[in-house]
Structure formats: structure tokens, C-alpha cells
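Re: duplicated header lines in exported C-alpha cells

Our pipeline writes sequence and C-alpha cells for each protein into one text file. With two proteins the header for the second block appears twice in some exports. Here is an export where it did not happen, for reference. First protein block:
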Amino acid sequence: MKARDVTDASRSKIYEVVQGIPPGCVATYGQVAELAGMPGAARFAGAAMRNCPEGLDLPWHRVVGRRSRTIARVAIEDGMGAGVQRQLLEAEGIRFTESGGIPLREHGWLPIDA
């Protein structure tokens, strides 16, 4: 997705998808972008989430990065934000592996290919 293709409507689609992620589940940025009709635009989904307008009550903590095909990771890079994201996910019953990953087979919102 090129910068000139970014519109408020595109961001709104991302936010609509994120709003639908149920408690106890996570979705990767790539999945969110694909469900919003923008396959391959995981970075755009991340940018949209970073620049989310105040006042939107989105479950932002349920959007995670992909570490591998079967493991996701807390996507926020700073220590404080990552800690908050992890606490919110754990409060919803998300289990983390010893290495800090999130098993997508257990907590992924959508089925993943093995």
C-alpha cells in the first residue's frame, strides 16, 4: 500500500476489524489488514493503530506482531507499553510462552496454517 492510497476510510476499516477481535483472542497486524481488504498491508495497520484518534475505544492490545507461523508477540516495542499490553492480554486469559510468545493455535482469533 502506497502512502497516496491511505485514506481515512482505509484507517476506519482497520479500526472496524480491530473492534471485532473478541476478548481472549489476538490477531496479527497482517490479519487485520487482510480482513480490512488490504492484504499485505501489515505495516499500514500498525501505523493506523499507532495513530489512532483519541476517543476510539478499541481493544488495541489484542493486535500483535507475528514472530513465526504459530507464535505471535507483543508488538509494542517500548518497555512500558509492552508491559501494559501484556497485562491486558493476561487479564483476558492469554497465555504467554516462557520466551514471551503468544501461541496462535490457542489464542489466535482466526485459524492459522500450520
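Second protein block, exported in the same file:
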Amino acid sequence: MIQKILKILVNIIPAAIMIGLIPLVQNDYLLAVVYIVIIIAAFVVHREQLDFTAFFVGLFAMTISEYVFISTGAEIFTRQTFLGVMPIWLPVLWGYGFVVIERAVKILRDN
């Protein structure tokens, strides 16, 4: 079980770095580019069969979900560089978040 937890933590590292950069990089477009570079590097180091599928499902599904949340007033962002309502880097972060979730489920499911 410890090995599974360690594998999950290793997969979380790129997402944790991306989250840590939010207060440090004020330019949303630059931050989105940095996120894309981190994701490409993470996929070069280790890529699994469903990673791209998970990424694009997360990217599109969470863009729509975030837009709905924001439109209903459930969320408010002060950084509104994408669709005038959210930061442009947010869907990219969600996309990679789906990759992490997909990998974690696979790790937990495997014997």
C-alpha cells in the first residue's frame, strides 16, 4: 500500500508545481504556456495509454463546468482571461488533474 501511495504522490508532483506557480506568475497567458511545457515534460517522462484522453476530457468538461459555475455565481475569479470569466490556465490545470485522477485510480485498482 505504501508503494501505491508513493506512486500516486509522484504523479501529483507536476500538478502541485503548477498550483504553486499560480501566485508567482501573474500573467495568465505565460502561466498557461508554462503549464503546457510542464505537461509535455511530464508526458515525455511518463505517458500511459489513456493520458491524452483523460487530459482532453478534463480540459473540455471542466471548461464547460467552470463556465456554468461562474455563470450561476457559484464561483468568481478575479483573473478572467478566458471567455471573460476565468483564467486561461484553469482548464489546462483541470486537464492535467484528470490525468492524475485517472492514473491514481489505475494504481489503486491494480494488484
